[in-house]
Amino acid sequence: MRLTMAEDTPKTYVALGDSMSIDEYAGGQGRGAASLLFRNRDDDVPDWKGRDIATRLPNSRFLLLASDGAISATVRYAQIPRLKDLNLRPALVTLTMGGNDLLQTFGHDDAAHAARRALWENGHAILSNLRPLLEPEAAIVIGTIYDPRDGTGDTGALGLLPWPGALDGIAQFNETLRALAAEHGALVADIHGHFRGHGLRAGNPAQWEARPKARDLWYCGVIEPNAWGADGMRAIFWDTLQTAGALSE
To answer: What's the pLDDT score for residue 160?
Structure first.
């Protein structure tokens, strides 16, 4: 299916999911990954001037339904019903989920396996219920989850208890997200790969500054994308859409 977003009618972009998509940790309103994808802040990131949905599609609208702390069940039972009640027909949806599902099981392999099954079940229900709400050729982009430890497995450096199974857990959850995307005709934004090297190897992900001096450090509060991380996430969403031909020139 060719994914296009023609300019003849107003288009709506909806961001679903967790705090990877929201504004708060990136410095406030309009600074999160989804917000930047919709409308770049030219004063902050002049290199991205003109490369956003609002510029490419002047009549477009943006709805941020993602919420802090959301798990896949939140998307399924709260965000999808809210979208349905709004009676919109989005042309683009981005979805970030899975990270909090895994975090809730931290340190417990059996619980992580159960959470992965729940992610699959919830994800299947989300995407099955989402597709009929969208325009016929709407693009859905699912982001993978990142690893602030940069593959080191060093939880102690982040003030967390040891969990040898954490790396496998992230890999397995990302496999599940990719499988869901394949089954439901969604695109995959490799946030995990794009963020590699911008966590523990670049500084201290536990710091709380939205705009740390080290611009290679893309995290704050251990698991949240700071301003530089939001910029990086927007970039991988944009590149994924461009590669798929989902944004008209």
So the answer is: 67
Other CB atoms within 10 Å distance of the CB of residue 91: 26
DSSP H helices, 77-152, are 80-86, 99-103, 109-130
Q: Residue 144 carries which DSSP code?
A: P
**What are the DSSP calls for 153-184, one per residue?**
---GGGT----TTHHHHHHHHHHHHHHHHHHH
Domain boundaries, the chain: 12-244
**Bridge partners for 143 per DSSP:** 96, 189
Most distant CA pair in the chain, distance = 54
Which pLDDT tens digit goes with each residue over 217-249? Answer: 999 999 999 999 999 999 999 999 999 998 765
User: pLDDT tens, 172-208?
Assistant: 999 999 999 999 999 999 999 999 999 999 999 999 9
CB atoms within 10 A of CB 10: 12
Asked if residues 61 and 12 have their Cβ atoms less than 8 Å apart, the reply is yes
Crossing angle of helices 109-130/166-184, nearest 10°? 20
Identify any residues that bridge with 220 across adjacent strands, giving them in sequence order: 224
The CATH class that applies to domain 12-244 reads alpha beta
